[in-house]
Write a structure and sequence with these properties.
By secondary structure, this protein is mainly α. It is built from 16 helices and no strands.
Amino acid sequence: MESSLSYLHLLYRAEGETYYGCVFDWFLQVQMLTTINDAANFCRQLATILDSGVPVSRGLKLLEQQAGVDCGARILQLRRLVDDGTPLHRAVLSLPEIFSPDDADILRIAESCGRVDFALRKLGDVKGKWRQRSRRVAAKSLYPVLIYHVAVGIAATVTFVFDGPVEAGLRCAAGLAPFYLAACVLTAARHVARLYPGVNRMLQRAIYFMPCAHGVVVKLGLARYWWSLQILADVGAGGAKAATIAAAASGNAVLRQKFDTVADAIRSGDSFASGLERLSFVSAATVEMIAAGEECGRLPDMLEKVAAAADADAERALINIEKWIPQLVYGLVMIWIAALICDIAALRSM
């Protein structure tokens, strides 16, 4: 794929804009944007176009033409902001489904360094990786959820045979109501958290201090923190500013406060490694690697290695989640079936 993209870039650079329509239209027809939530493809495609020397406004127009109806309308909104003179890092905030305020900060620094295409490609890679992980966890949860519904249906059928339709309907409602009630509560909490930052921070704190979720939250936050730092270092940003942006990208209010102490340490004149020593969840090996990178002047390379290691830890944490979520649902199904058998046995004995 990379060789094909390089060939397209060479065609564009060698032949000029005569190949602009045919070459890039063909490329974007292969990977058409069908939804604005497809953040990874959007970032990668825009990065590919900008890397070929196409202006931002024209690149957005091309994406708009090749995208679906809903997605194209949102890209049109972004392009109009850019045409009106709004910097890209501010304009992207009109697409909250794709770009967070932390992403906008990274793009702001990339714009000042002239490396917007690189930052977009890195953001696309990271977003694509997290999207694959979330889909994998959801897929692992789908089968046991279906099993649960089948069990409730069997229970309702057995009750219908023995006790009639009214009791069958009540048993089906009693079995499905807790599941859908929990789903509605979680969905409502998610939307409220998006609308009210205070509620979002409160929920993040609650999740952080939950014993069953603490380790996963820390590992995922570390992975986000190190990847953000690595992207910022690659585009030429460093120091307290980069540490502050990466802290906000950790995804949890408690972790952000802890990572902010690193930025405060850098502002007071300490090294990055010295600030990391204050965090109990950062290993001594990681601190030593960062200290070695600072001493040798190769901090970006060392950040890349640390980010890869943290990403592997996050992967293992998600694999554990994939294992216990089906087991939890299967346990609920077994409890439901056991309760059903006991109930039917009690009714038959009467």
